[in-house]
Amino acid sequence: MNYTDFLKSKIKLAQKEGVDLEVSKINPALKPHNQLMVKWLVEGGRRACFASFGLHKTVTQLEAVRIVLENTGGSGLIICPLSVRAEFIRDAKERLGWSNLPKFIRRNSEMNGDGIYLTNYESVRDGKLDPTVFEVASLDEASVLRGLGGSKTFREFMRIFTGDGGPNGNRRGAEGVKYRFVATATPSPNDYIELLAYADFLGVMDVSQAKTRFFKRDSTKADKLTIHAHKEEEFWMWVSSWAIFVSKPSDLTGDPKDDEGYILPPLEVIWHEIPTDHTKAGYEKDGQQRMFKNAAFGLSEAAREKRETVDARVAKLMELRELSPEAHRILWHDTEAERKAIAKAIPSVASVYGSQKLELREDLIRGFSDGEIQELSTKPVIAGSGCNLQRHCNWAIYLGIGYKFNDFIQSIHRIQRFGQPHAVRIDLIYTEAERKIRKDLERKWSQHNKMVKKMTDIIKKYGLSHQEMAKVLTRNMGVERIEIKERRYRLINNDNVPETKAMKENSVGLIHTSIPFSMQYEYTPNYSDFGHSESNEEFFRQMDFLTPELLRVLKPGRIAAIHVKDRIIPGGLNGLGFQTVYPFHLDTIQHFTKHGFAYMGMKTIVTDVVRENNQTYRLGWTEQCKDGTKMGVGMPEYLLLFRKPQTSTDKSYADEPVVKDKGKYSRARWQVDAHGFTRSSGNRLLVPEELAKLDHKGIFQTFKKNSLDTIYNYEHHVKIGEKLDASGKLPTSFMLLQPQSWSDEVWADVTRMLTLNGSQWSKGKEMHLCPLQFDIVDRTITQFSNEGDVVYDPFGGLMTVPYRAILLNRFGLGCELNNGYFLDGATYCKAMQEEMDMPTLFDMLKEPEQASA
């Protein structure tokens, strides 16, 4: 595979797992848009159908399953909510004209030969029915999977359907159920994790891969996902490669005439606010009585508010009913107390609830749907999905509101559907203290509409062709090359693989770079970005194209200094429930030695453990006190040193040795570079009270000097910190009392904020994610190169390495893919070459009198 083909392989669109299908083979009773949906599902093999309410997902699933079975033989299974099975049987008979109707079963023993069977989610979840004996399965109202890892339904369905073993041993082994479909009208736009759950269930991409590929990390909450702005287009194209969003028939057919009869009726939403009794506001944790009830409800407070206001809300319900006493209405509620209150106030109402027999529930819902029952009282979680109630009802009253948007929007569309001849009225009753819940519902509703529009726009633009979407994404490869060449440096805005390949052999005196930490970060939306990888293996496959070229261009016997850091793997991704460490530096060593570099050792650079904990919540004091076994240690950074073998093995020196003048390179400096120690001067340990009187800057400098000049004492170190904490002088945002080192093998005096990134921040620009520190770069350049050498950084970023190389009388060479970083780096290098007074963060930190002197 050449490099271009490798980059193309990084484009991830769902692959076809089904069989080719001509539209002529599909039941002609289906509408044109349903025929296209069936063709897309069958050819994909593992696909999601997110079609709007009333667009006939029922017949679409039935026909897709039937056609798959024509090719495979055997039986198919459709899993649906308890109250929906009658819709499948009715549509199979009346719309499709089938004589062999689907049969509802709860156990495999109830099967009577091949065919299409219906079951409910509970039968599968509880192990009564093994789906792995079926060739194809479709999940109707598949939003039950949205619970992801915390949901028993999701865990069981993933275990059974994806091949980890069904309740009866899973006769298919690793394959699971080969053909899988999901269908719902309301994939939640408010929580991307639901879409990822569908992709995982369908075998498109597992959740952890998708999180890494498209989303920013939030260390405070594992499933709080924020999509990278530069990844949004790719994300939605990826989704539309395995999920079809349809809001009206013409979205697929392209013919507006097909929308006739598929225009949703007008929706009138009326909110009714009930005053809250603030005399029951309660107390704060410190015992202070509240003046007003807390509007920022949690689940427990919301439940309490519902209990305390049920009478007032039922009174409003009765008032609304008087507007049209004879109208057919559905009365939605959330709790048993509300159901009983409604039944008491309206004796004639038909109530559907969980403890009823299934047959009775279905009979009541059917009776209301057919107009035989005037008013139905039930919960959205019971009858809010799948039922078609619009034939005799266009009015719903909600006795309360809650946080579950999916249940809410599903229940609205039981009556606002295609085929509804009347305008739909929705009355929502809530209390003053529930204003935040109302705003949250309205926000989610708006986001839902935006997402559906975004997805349908993609389908309108590209159709259902993967090839067209792939062409668009392929454009995100490489950049328009820019080169800036000056007397003391050369900078290139380009992919570093072809750029390094074009460089002369044995032309570089030192390679010094910070390679991307595998797939930890992406710096551009470009597929050439090494961080744009779905796995560690894919990252190193791309490095396989670069590293041999680095070896080729480096002078024989010279050094490649590679800055790396190990990665923290969250417990949710490694499956262990606690954070572990991926030893990235070890894989990097193996990678470079595989390509011919000789490993020479590494410098260890300690980091700020407190600051790191603020980013990962891995090293917390509280957690350490709860269980010290799960804490781990602060993650150092490493500077890995690799040497290109010299031409002749008769001598160990480089072809062009890095020579030091002993008059300038002292014995003392050599000892520090090699393995230096600062011996004890006999000076005493600091008294904690002496530190407590100083400001943070004074404390840091004094502690550092004392730590390096005297014999280290762990208990005394801790005692100083405890004393400072007691006096309010121990900061929580950075580590004040850093352990200092006597050995140059551990660089503890690297100034963490002294980087070009500080200049970026001061100018209000984007922060580079992992900038190299000046201290590291200066030491490396001075120790491992001669004046006049070319110093090359293939991952230039803000061009710190070329910038410092110019300062140290070397020739700076840098390559960077990100155009913004490249341009800023060019500015810094130009300023250095012209010997302009470029202020650094240290200049800003100087005392006023020092700065003026």
UniProtKB/TrEMBL annotation:
<dbReference type="InterPro" id="IPR027417">
    <property type="entry name" value="P-loop_NTPase"/>
</dbReference>
<dbReference type="GO" id="GO:0032259">
    <property type="term" value="P:methylation"/>
</dbReference>
<feature type="domain" description="DNA methylase N-4/N-6">
    <location>
        <begin position="509"/>
        <end position="822"/>
    </location>
</feature>
<dbReference type="InterPro" id="IPR029063">
    <property type="entry name" value="SAM-dependent_MTases_sf"/>
</dbReference>
<dbReference type="GO" id="GO:0003677">
    <property type="term" value="F:DNA binding"/>
</dbReference>
<dbReference type="InterPro" id="IPR002941">
    <property type="entry name" value="DNA_methylase_N4/N6"/>
</dbReference>
<keyword id="KW-0808">Transferase</keyword>
<dbReference type="GO" id="GO:0008170">
    <property type="term" value="F:N-methyltransferase activity"/>
</dbReference>
<protein>
    <submittedName>
        <fullName>DNA methylase N-4</fullName>
    </submittedName>
</protein>
<dbReference type="Pfam" id="PF01555">
    <property type="entry name" value="N6_N4_Mtase"/>
</dbReference>
<keyword id="KW-0489">Methyltransferase</keyword>
